[in-house]
Target: UDP-N-acetylmuramoyl-L-alanyl-D-glutamate--2, 6-diaminopimelate ligase
Amino acid sequence: MGKIKNIIKKIVPTWVFSIYHWKLALLGALIYRFPARHIKVVAVTGTKGKSSTTELVSAILEEAGFKTALVSTVRFKIGNESRPNRLKMTTPGRFTLQKLIREAVDAHCDYIVLEISSEATKQFRHKFIALDALLVTNLSPEHIESHGSFAKYKEAKLKIAHALATSWKPNKVLVTNGDDPALDDFRKINIATKLESHLAEAEPHALLVDGLFFTYAGQKIQTKLVGEFNLYNILLAITYAKSQNIGPDKIKQAIEKFSGIPGRLEQVTPTDPTLARLQDFKVIVDYAHTADSLQKVYEIYKDHKIIAVLGGTGGGRDSDRRQIMGGLADKYASLVIITDEDPYDENPEQIATQVASGVTHTPKEIIMERRLAIRKAIEKAETGSVIIITGKGTDPYIMRANGAKEPWSDAEVARSELTSFLQQKVKVDE
Model:
């Protein structure tokens, strides 16, 4: 299927695809009666941190008394109703996206927060959605195979900022991570209210294995989120919240209540709570599928004995990253287990071999069946070890050749294998 799509892309001129996608976007908006006209629409984009920032913005708005909806890589939420995103895409297609916005309007939501990817802008999924705000987390050279170059990737992201600039909505707001120079072009766009967040605003701060402590505008705030990158996400959300006249107490309460989202540094515990006392090591599931995000996850646990379970960034794309990803696991881990991820139409063993080529010093194993790889990591864990399973997060399928989908959940499989392991440990102790 992937090969056929590539052939079609080579034969058919780009402008034909553009017209096709534009007309679909218009049709979707027409069918659902341009729902974005009747709700505040907050877009979130960037290379990393989009899902977490989307959830943080929604959480703060809700704490302030607003009813919210959100669309992200992880889930679709309309008011109190939530369901997982099983589409294998960050931003749904034009019809689904407009339908979700319409559902939010019909449910009398005040805001909808949309996670928008660069791939979505290539297919005009963001068109005919009048934006009120845009938050930009960061920008780094990822997904280049899809766009051709970093310049084209940035151009795709900038389309969202231009959409905000041309939106008819009043009181539009652009919020960027002020510490990222790659976002300078966003800050040049003509939008009346342009705000920046900076890490310096959170001084002093402490980055711990189990959370963050920081001070903002004189308030001490504690959160269960970990890593400096999450502090950046929090600051971006705070800056937007302040633009909506949300007070510091509500912001603090929302952040301290927020426990994170599935598949993002998610700690896995056994299904039987009575077994938790026997678990003397951590099992972490994270979506990290780029070199930069993988390094950030490993950095958090660098003082621990890491067992890395990783795949090869997905078949048909970014193949040059595979050796780099293996090299990062080689640098940080005490054991590297390379497994299957989303091979699509590529040879999965070949992908694993490319990842393994970056592991030159650390003991490594290639275990193609992902469940067995996770089981092996748990069996090898020692007191204080941290097993880090990356690449899929909450992805509900392993994507195989010819469009085949194998139902999957890293967290559920890890939980099942961990529970089984601890149960066996109880039997041995008896």
